[in-house]
Fold each of these.
Amino acid sequence: MNESQRKWWKEAVVYQIYPRSFKDSNGDGVGDLRGIIEKLDYIKSLGIDVVWLNPIFGSPNDDNGYDISDYRAIMNEFGTMADFDEMLEGMHERGIKLVLDLVVNHSSDEHEWFKQSRSSRENPYRNYYHWWDVEKGKPANRWSFFDVNADAWAFDEATKSYYLHYFSRKQPDLNWENPKVRQEVYDLMRFWFDKGIDGFRMDVITFISKDTTFPELPEKYDGNFVQYYAEGENRHEYLQEMNQAVLSKYDIMTVAEGPGTTAENVLEYVDESRNELNMSYHFEAIDLGLAEHHQRILDPNGWKLLDFKKVYSKWDAVFAEKGWGTIYLGNHDQPRMVTRWGNDAPEFREISSKMLSTFLMTMRGTPYYYFGDELGMTNIKFDKIEDYQDIMTINLHTLFEKEGRDVSQLLESHKITGRDNGRTPFQWNDSPNGGFTTGKPWLKVNPDYTEINVEAQENDPNSVLNYFRKIVKFRKDNPVLIYGKYTLVDEENPNVYAYTRELNGRKLLILLNFTEEESAAALDSDFQNVKVLLGNYSAPSIDGKLKPYEAVIFEV
Ligand code: GLC
Ligand code: CA
């Protein structure tokens, strides 16, 4: 590794906060910026470097802030611009950087641009969105993630035209082929950078460019459907333009939400010589074990560790020379890490949470760690649709009913895969509602808060929380874990994930048992003179025979 390849965002641990669910400061049941301000010392105590906040901008909240009606205002429920300034200053004083969410594939239908756009076919804002006039007949089918008919074209009576919305009807897609739209986006980005933020996570940025002739899709499309639907031919031109106009002017980081990106094409976004983005995150690992990806229906055969290892190893190799990767197991679109990838049964919840944190902090690539996973928070597993607040589950439920599909299959799967599982309020202590709010929480608090909460874990040196602090510090103290070469070991082992990391003559071996069985790793002769550096059991195994969900890091 040469010095010029070192970057602060490669060395950072990112902690993602879903502001709606972190801390409510005024008793209205919704988390807010003053709640984050109250908890800055807690955030600092984790040892993380960067906070990524989900959208905090003006929004009617059809999709919890991913439908923006004013890009330069703070959502009323979250507070004021003065609160934002104070929060940012509080983070910077503590050496924490702030990354915001850039949601510009679509806006809210309540954004002034869309109000203008839909008012007449001649309006100057008409071309800010994708319209299909009724005289041209019905547009070719486009699938929508959140539409109750799964139809991405909505008919608008006022101008007798259809508009495109890949997400909900209240999230019309912006027309990036219009240079004015792109300038508007660059302007609003400058507004936030000039306030001092340190980067953007870019929502579905692979969708911005589309074939605007909207041809019929092939009858059957294989695996990566995004290539037919989005990932238009101009996407790289636009990202390079954005880089030149805005990103290159600031010392900031960017990360693409990369639906549709593959190990074959991701470097087109993040190879530094192309001057586009810094990092991207893919869905290939997180979608393992799903029979139907977009509906989040589980495959009855579950997921296999062998596939998991294959995917992570393949993606690591992509960035061996160029670009930079990301590692995550949870976010606001995913369930709780321990339920999906570990084991949330009482006897294994803590140990498997610690094992997964070890995985995230010992891989190459910037770790994105989701708030609440540091406590080992679990899926709430709602059993009735009325408990859900998420437009995805609610609208899929309606769609399944309309199509006469098995609704119980959807509900069963969403107990494991549903997004609301990762959005239940943060558990601060064992007072009512876990200390999140004094009012009625916007989404039910997981009843396990009486046991799983910050206060209980602060006082326990062996808690999941204190292990997280330890493993974060361990990564930061050992550059081999950041920059070191990754090599998969004992490849065919179905229970154990084993790999080495090497840099400047140092070599670490990481062993992770992903099962509740005792499992042995097959190790070569190197393993004779090893030293244990860290483990998730108080007496780590030193012979490669691992206890359930055991994680051990050795110096080799
Ligand atoms: C991204 C966001 C998700 C949102 C969608 C539409 O996938 O992460 O939460 O619903 O885009 O903006
Ligand atoms: Ca509030």
Amino acid sequence: MSAANQLYQEVILDHNRKPRNWGKLDDASRHAEGLNPLCGDHIWVYLKLNDKRIEGISFEGQSCAICKASASMMTHAVKGKSIDEALTLGQEFRDMSTGKLDPQSGDHHLGRLTVFAGVRDLPTRVKCAILPWHTLHSAIHSIEQVSTEGEADPVPGAGLERTDHA
Ligand code: ZN
């Protein structure tokens, strides 16, 4: 087993034994549900935002080990970060998982999350690893929609889906 593989196995095991930020966040201002029918992963991500910063985050649900470990590490990574930073991290994670970003390049903010780089060679597990980030994106997305009612400056670059393909 390679060193990278061994680290990967250890991280997955550790986060499954002791998932960080597990459970429902009582004072969450937003939440989103994530589903990966391919594997059966079904999770919820809870967010508490304060001044466009992720003050609190948690997750729960039923999922495979990769999804659970990814969600656990995600909550740890984005807690305390701004929404923009969290979205950038999510984009980098997706790019790494799909092989578009080279974790060795150093041109990213992934840190320990690079342990998941190996999933790019496992097409069926990519969705498991990415699901938590998709779910976080959804939760933030719904924040953005409500924030336009109360704030003059909606969150920029939160990745609103474009419906016009013109
Ligand atoms: Zn899975």
